[in-house]
Write the structure tokens for this entry.
Amino acid sequence: MRRFLMKGNDAIGEGAILAGCRHFFGYPITPQSEVTHYLAKRLPEIGGLFMQAESELASINLVFGAACAGARVMTASSGPGISLMQEELSFLAGSELPCVLVNIMRGGPGLGNIGPSQADYFQATKGGGHGDYHIIVLAPNSVQEILDIMKKAFDLSDMYRMPAMVLADGIMGQMMEPVVIDEEKSVEIPPRPWATTGRDYHEDRNEINSLFVILEEMEEVNLRLLHKYEEICAKETLCEEYMLDDAEVALVAFGTVSRICRAVVDKAREQGIRAGLVRPITLWPFPYDVISRTAKSVQCFLAVEMNMGQMFEDIEIGAKGRAPVYHYGRLGGMVPLAKDILEELKKVSERGGTGQ
Amino acid sequence: MKKITARPYSLRDVPFHYCPGCMHGIAHRLVAEVIDELGVSGRTIGISSVGCSVFAKHYFNVDMIQAAHGRAPSIATGVKRVLPDRVLFTYQGDGDLAAIGIGDFIHTAYRGEKITTIFVNNTVYGMTGGQMAPTTLIGQVTKTTPFGRSVEINGNPIRACELIAPVEGVVYVERVSLHNPKEIIKAKKAIRKAFEMQLNGVGFSLVEALSACPTNLGLSPLEAIKWMEEKMIPFYPLGVYKSPAGVV
Ligand SMILES: Cc1ncc(C[n+]2csc(CCOP(=O)(O)OP(=O)(O)O)c2C)c(N)n1
Ligand code: SF4
């Protein structure tokens, strides 16, 4: 066991290495660039490969190739770069290839700014690329959790043969915290009999493909994907619940904002307001069950996000109209302050379940 | 009776979907024969592109990957960087390589990636119904150049061999044609050389194969061959553009 003070972006890199990832293809963009700096140095030290591509379009296609060849492989970027990767994300999902993407979100749309943001929630959880598909989306809220969640992302991606994304914002990427690295843990990477490694290396010829011109065949593939997605929803949803047992108002937040909201819950409780917090860790699959269960006991929800209200829509789906959902968001790279969230919390707790 | 020819091992025994007079089938066979002759079918991985040759993934009897439109060189690079001892080839049309995929193509060439690209130039987008490609000749009528391609509106056709031959890291570039048996024999030699360059680990190799798309030219297969001789080959001269001896 080793203790370190570590930056979030470095933890992305170290977490990937601890997860057995030895191939990284990427392109610099703020506030993600330290991931590339870290891995450019670390991967060659341990016999891995870091390669800077000419664009995000190329990065994700290099990832695609490495995944075909059976590697544990990843890339990292931020909004504008992730947008460029959407084409291949759809192809990765269609070809059922495992890989990990990291999005350290910044302000947008367009070139936006380099402030922290959660504005890519829709893009991450609702598609972005064409076609009927999902990717697994994980949202850590501490540097330690970043380290651990990288392994989780690779394992899930491998187990279900689909891309997984670690979604964080510029604060998560830039912040430094103490972490513990447990080096005892050995990594087991499952075999990949489907990989295109040359047919002498496996019995039959392998084909990696996302083209199904026969309609019935395409539907069959879509149905297989659907069943896989249903299984993931049933088994892999992760969510942290804080002080929900007797809560009247439930804050819902992920990533950076969830830490501020936890402090707000404590403050509110001191002032006699029974507040609680739901923190989705997997954004897809979304913890609809927790929201739905909580909706039966609370008077209302308050979604706090650094966007216009994107996760808000998933909370509404989960609440099924049993409790009203309010939204408080800061935009453009701004971070909600604890005092402002508390203010908002007081307002909605007064309005309660009236839905006004 | 002596058997003098047979289906190459590296080509699966499945019917092709290509139109009569299309030369994709010939190009497939040549690539498969070369893979057989070099004895590398067990460690070859092919990347098929988007276009009429999209089903190449199904026809070659080696591991195959179906790429997104234009991205085959990047994907091939990804595979090769993980498995450096394997033999990688991309099979791409002119729309695929010279339009949407030209960035992937140029950067892969500049990196000197040890892969082989088979580039089938038929001067049109075949699969989508005969629109202009970057390789469409000046004056050539296509669905999107109904009055003939003009320099003013569409710019000049891209000559891939001439573009890539001077690049460091590129070791072998040859333009061949598939329009008669003599040229087909030359084409096979070129493909073999390109694969050998990769096996020797020297760098990127490209074979551009001129081909006809009778369907979208609106010509019979024989007329299309004549068209190639009269119009296409003068604009796209055949020959070696680069070999280890240097740029020719
Ligand atoms: C991103 C994207 N854009 C457009 C298409 C449509 N499309 C399919 S094939 C093709 C042209 C292929 O032409 P070429 O590479 O010359 O191959 P050919 O069909 O002539 O063999 C296009 C534009 C696509 N599949 N994907
Ligand atoms: S449309 Fe043209 S390129 Fe496509 S198969 Fe037919 S002849 Fe060949």
